[in-house]
Amino acid sequence: MSADPLDTLATIGKGKSTRSALRVVILALIAAASIASRLFSVIRFESIIHEFDPWFNFRATKYLVANGFYSFWDWFDDRTWHPLGRVTGGTLYPGLMVTSGAIWHALRALTIPVDIRNVCVLLAPAFSGLTAIAAYLLTNEMTTSNSAGLLAALFMGIAPGYISRSVAGSYDNEAIAIFLLVFTFFLWIKALKQGSMLWGALCALFYGYMVASWGGYAFITCLLPLHSFVLICMGRYSTRLYVAYTTWYALGTLASMQIPFVGFLPVKTSEHMPALGIFGFLQLLAFLDYVRSAIPSRQFQSFLWIFAGGIFTIGLAGLVVATSAGIIAPWSGRFYSLWDTGYAKIHIPIIASVSEHQPTAWPAFFFDLNMLVFLFPVGVYLCFQELADEHVFIIVYAVFGSYFAGVMVRLMLTLTPVVCVAAAIAISTLLDTYLDTKTPPEDQQSAEGSEKKSAKPGLKSASKPVVGVYSIWSKGLMVGSFSIYLLIFVLHCTWVTSNAYSSPSVVLASRMPDGSQHIIDDYREAYQWLRQNTKEDAKIMSWWDYGYQIGGMADRPTLVDNNTWNNTHIATVGKAMSSREEVSYPIMRQHEVDYVLVVFGGLLGYSGDDINKFLWMVRIAEGIWPDEVNERSFFTPRGEYRVDGEATETMKNSLMYKMSYYNFNNLFPPGQAVDRMRQARLPEVGPTLSTMEEAFTSENWIIRIYKVKDLDNLGRDHISAAAFDRGQKKRKATKKRGPRVLRVE
Amino acid sequence: MRWLPAFLSVSLLAGGSLAAKKTSEERFKSFHSKSLSSAPLKLSDASYRDLTSAPRDYTAAIVLTAMDARFGCQLCREFAPEWELLAKSWTKGDRAAESRLLFGTLDFLDGRDIFMSLGLQTAPILLLFPPNAGPHAVASADPIRYDFTNGPQTAEFVHGWIARHLPDRPHPPVKRPINWIRWISTFVIVSGSLTASYVAWPYIIPILQSRNVWSAITLISILLFTSGHMYNHIRKVPYVASDGKGGISYFAGGFQNQYGLETQIIAGIYGFLSLAGISLAIKVPRTANANAQTVLALVWGVLLFVIYSFLISIFRVKNAGYPLSLPPFM
């Protein structure tokens, strides 16, 4: 009876054409959902570029659209890293800018007038739709189940681990790079399965695009050789592998070397060496394979294996020697910190200071993946069942992806695709098993020949034959509970996206007591002030975090920015911020600084301010000038980092402290000044500034801008000039005035 | 800097009484000849005052430490061998004493008064007394203090710090003795394991080729990584912590924090949930007996539900604003 409507339901999807039409519709809906879920920030705030790095990408894209491709390629930017400048065209990954430039031109050619800003803002959501489709294709290569691909596409579309980097306005390299990553993997699997040069060349093409887009391409560069190596170790060398790998490597390396920023790195640095090594190893194997086919002999075969192993060992030893002799560049810092994160902490404070380079605590995994985090091992286990070449890929990717994601928060992004694929395999297997309307006959126990299965080497748990599920109760329970889990997953993703990943961080939102939204727009207020009230070439000194935003929004030259290519220059800024005024002023004069910008959260309780980042400035400066800047002297004798009356003299006299708290106590009744961020009562008398004057303070005091004073007209130093202005009589200066010194600066 | 006047008066007093008899050069000679046989010098109250007394044309680097087990100074004990190594290799490398540097160690038990007069609350502390007479004299003879804020330091690191404060003098490098035990044991272990693997090769091959072994390794490592084990490894988090009421706090407050035990609980939960998923996907449909299959499916299904609900409730502890929950652990 009950089977009747079920049957009619089942027959709807039976026809092949209906099915593929349904599939296209579902995929389109998934792509639409993944785009829509990334639009929270545009709806809530406005179409605006987020964060820090995207502002540089946006500025570069505007330059590309305005000046054309060739001048973009040769772009030397003299408005950053003053006075050094930056060879921008040669030190960026141009893929993102060129993509949005091309889209902009295409839309213009179709006579759709669109602002380049809107292209940039919406690029990441658009590409996330493509990523969902790429995940569908990749999963379809792994399993015969029809639903797995669609589930993977759905997971990929809304998993917070990917949304975190691809909401509207998050115009960063990752926006397109994850699509390229997944699609390159799909093409690699396709090339490997078919042993096809065409697919291999396509894989190389997309690999080249990936190299042009994101520094994370090294992940592909290491994963594909690793996959091949594991296959070879399993004794699965085949001509398919040879064709796919050599095509990808030869063309892909050539493609990657076309990017000026990459240049000759693929043949020089050690993170590219595994790819080269496996390439050579495959040539040897192919040669031996040919010889073996020509001279069939059993002893010869074992000799060949020893020969191949010997060559491999010699190659490895050569690599080690060449690295230690300095012929091949040693592992670059950022990459090395993946293997030994203690290294970064000791040697490169600038790497340790970036929060994206911190290790991942477990809540972050659950936050970004929800139930996928425990379905992921299930899917990986299912891959062991069949263990074809493509399943080995998923296993290798899973282990290394989760290792890297555990070491660095940012690499959660590269783990997410494999989690989605594996979890989709797991759920689709479960649903296929329990959604089957057919009930197996009761007694078919020993009917199937089990000896046929057990002969094959496989998983112990999968040695018995599949019989199917008997009870409608277990079916109902499983289908019901998994529907609940999937529903919770959707709710979780929506909640995470809406609450955690959709804030532009340029505009802060807070809730008023009555529940209405209050927008704190201090950043843009301050950058607008800079744009309208300062000279076109006024140099702004700030900590490097704000460099890109000042360049993008205020359009003023900066000393340092988020492209942290010159550690010494950053340390110079750190030293100026953490030293006494007498030390800082000459530094600022030498760098022609006109304004200094600091971020201060004491009034509002905003945690991302410069006083909280201050120790990193001290540490980075100490790395270069250990005798002049000393981290210890910023801590009280009891080892506390304080800003109130108990703060150390070094702290109170540092330029950063003075600029942050200058005039702050005037806001409060005498003696009542409180820093709301650090819950500290400040001393009654605030700091005094002699070499600079307050130029601008934003509504909520988040941004404070100071103008560096010009030299004193009477030739006094600024300390005594400021003391004179305050009406303090000179105490000793009249007696001890030395001979007049000619001003030379 | 509060202790400076007190310290100066003490050292001046002591120095005055002793230095009246010996000149700076004589003191250096006697100390240096001693340190050639046993570097660093083991100091006492009197010899410390003698060594640091006022007109001195040499530099003294002195570690104030507390080695006795009663004080429980882990850092002191960790730093002691490094300090000895540095003192020995510097003194050996500079027999003619051209760098005019003396190494000393003052233990709290031998120099209680010195610790009191310096007002020291912590140990170890390294003081570098620059010369105030002779060719290398500097303007301010106040000792330069090195704090061990970044944990125990290697001999090389301290060597760099000392060398920075002794410009234009020879800096004999740190020479670590060859660790014979380690070399020999490495050799024995490598050769032993090679032999063992050669003998056991026929037995190892099936293990190496077993899918069950590899799948177990893969799943365990994935579970370790996704439950935040690398975070523990890098940040060296405590295993558990006290909750301030005499009990144990299993879960660290805050989204960015975790304890060692906490990650093991989480890894266990993930492992159990994965096991449930694997059983439901592979084991249950292969169970031929209908009743056994139904029981198995219901048990795993209910357990999956309950444990997942528990996991969400733990996550709500970590992230206070999380709105979702499942029935048993609301």
From TrEMBL, chain A:
Comp. bias regions, Basic residues: 728-745
Top-level class of the enzyme under EC nomenclature: transferase
EC number, UniProt record: 2.4.99.18
Pathway: Protein modification; protein glycosylation
TM regions (residue ranges): 21-43, 91-107, 119-138, 144-163, 175-192, 241-261, 273-291, 303-329, 364-384, 391-409, 477-497
Free-text function comment from the UniProt entry: Catalytic subunit of the oligosaccharyl transferase (OST) complex that catalyzes the initial transfer of a defined glycan (Glc(3)Man(9)GlcNAc(2) in eukaryotes) from the lipid carrier dolichol-pyrophosphate to an asparagine residue within an Asn-X-Ser/Thr consensus motif in nascent polypeptide chains, the first step in protein N-glycosylation. N-glycosylation occurs cotranslationally and the complex associates with the Sec61 complex at the channel-forming translocon complex that mediates protein translocation across the endoplasmic reticulum (ER).
Record's protein name: Dolichyl-diphosphooligosaccharide--protein glycosyltransferase subunit STT3
Originating species: Cladorrhinum samala
Automatic annotation (TrEMBL), chain B:
Function: Subunit of the oligosaccharyl transferase (OST) complex that catalyzes the initial transfer of a defined glycan (Glc(3)Man(9)GlcNAc(2) in eukaryotes) from the lipid carrier dolichol-pyrophosphate to an asparagine residue within an Asn-X-Ser/Thr consensus motif in nascent polypeptide chains, the first step in protein N-glycosylation. N-glycosylation occurs cotranslationally and the complex associates with the Sec61 complex at the channel-forming translocon complex that mediates protein translocation across the endoplasmic reticulum (ER). All subunits are required for a maximal enzyme activity.
Membrane topology field: Multi-pass membrane protein
InterPro entries recorded: OligosaccharylTrfase_OST3/OST6 (IPR021149), Thioredoxin-like_sf (IPR036249)
Protein name, UniProt field: Uncharacterized protein
Keywords, comma-separated and alphabetical: Endoplasmic reticulum, Membrane, Signal, Transmembrane, Transmembrane helix
Localization annotation: Endoplasmic reticulum membrane
Family: Belongs to the OST3/OST6 family.
GO cellular component: oligosaccharyltransferase complex
Pfam families per the UniProt record, alphabetical: OST3_OST6 (PF04756)
Any Gene Ontology biological process: protein N-linked glycosylation via asparagine
Chain ranges passing through the membrane: 180-201, 213-231, 265-282, 294-315
Primary location class: endoplasmic reticulum
Signal peptide: 1-19
